Amino acid sequence: MPVGFGTLLAGTHSGIDESIKKVIESKADLADLWTRHFSICSSSDPLPEINFEEEVVVCVFAGEQGSGGYSISVKSIEDTDERKIGVEFTCPGATAITTCALTQPHHVIRMPKTSLPVSFVDIETAAEPSSTGVPTRFLLTFEGTKELKAAEEVKGLDGVLETEAMLDGRLLVVTVKSRFPLRKQLESVDGVQSVEIDG
Hints:
four-stranded antiparallel β-sheet; 2 domains; mainly beta; Alpha-Beta Plaits
């Protein structure tokens, strides 16, 4: 069953620069989020009035991104045997013109309170095809001695076509079907230090 919700905040600049997906169930926690979010601003919006007996607040922050063109948003909420919150993260297309400024995409919503367990479901967007018409390749480096375990996890990701270890395993060339939806997954693998597009 679909569940209605309302937006409290949405944008690309925030004092919160880490990746967060969280349900807020108290005024104190909301006030803390509000203060952190507006810490980069000279003034802040008023703290919204939320009746936490009937509603909760959900926030999704994408973490700090190296340019404009990124966004994150709650797209759907559905009740089944649990409450599933569908979150969409989008990235700039291969030929997009973006600002060079750091951004912190975010979406904060209010929704009816529930006794069901809550889970976040990632909604992947279709990636823009590579302008060269060939699969995209990423260059991965690793932290310390974690390269073997991280490389094995990368090989198992959906969308990975092939991998090739170089520099005694310190560099991994990863060929993938699609560019942007998979990049976030590569960056989230434990032990991966950096992810760069090859060419």
